[in-house]
UniProtKB/TrEMBL annotation:
Family affiliation: Belongs to the FtsB family.
Protein encoded by which gene: ftsB
Biological processes per GO annotation: FtsZ-dependent cytokinesis
Protein name per Swiss-Prot or TrEMBL: Cell division protein FtsB
GO cellular component: cell division site; cell septum; plasma membrane
Length: 107
């Protein structure tokens, strides 16, 4: 009887081996599932980038507004009949408050 029990336990262990360690095992399924989740995230990012690039291509194909905007912003170009004004911000220090021991009004 004891011999039969050992044979059955060994047979069950041999049947379980491919399930846990072999090709198509639970371990490889878990690993593949983690890779799938990671790849889906990458694919979503790439789809968003592709959508923005497609929208930009459509804008460039349809009209001159997008081309003009790029020429102005990226290349600093202006039209032939335009006058360009550049406004610079001046960083003048604020006036300091007079010390408290000096009176505001002359004597």
């Amino acid at each position: 009887m004891r011999f039969l029990t050992l044979i059955l336990v060994a047979l069950i262990a041999l049947l379980q081996y491919p399930l846990w360690v072999g090709k198509g095992s639970w371990l490889s399924v878990w690993k593949n599932d983690a890779e799938l989740v990671k790849q889906k995230g990458i694919n979503e990012q790439l789809q968003a980038r592709n959508a923005s690039l497609e929208a930009e291509v459509n804008d460039l194909k349809q009209g001159y507004d997008a081309i003009e905007e790029r020429a102005r912003n990226e290349l600093g170009m202006i039209r032939h009949d335009e006058v360009f004004f550049q406004v610079l911000e001046s960083h003048v220090p604020a006036r300091a408050a007079p010390p408290s021991n000096i009176p505001d009004q002359p004597l």
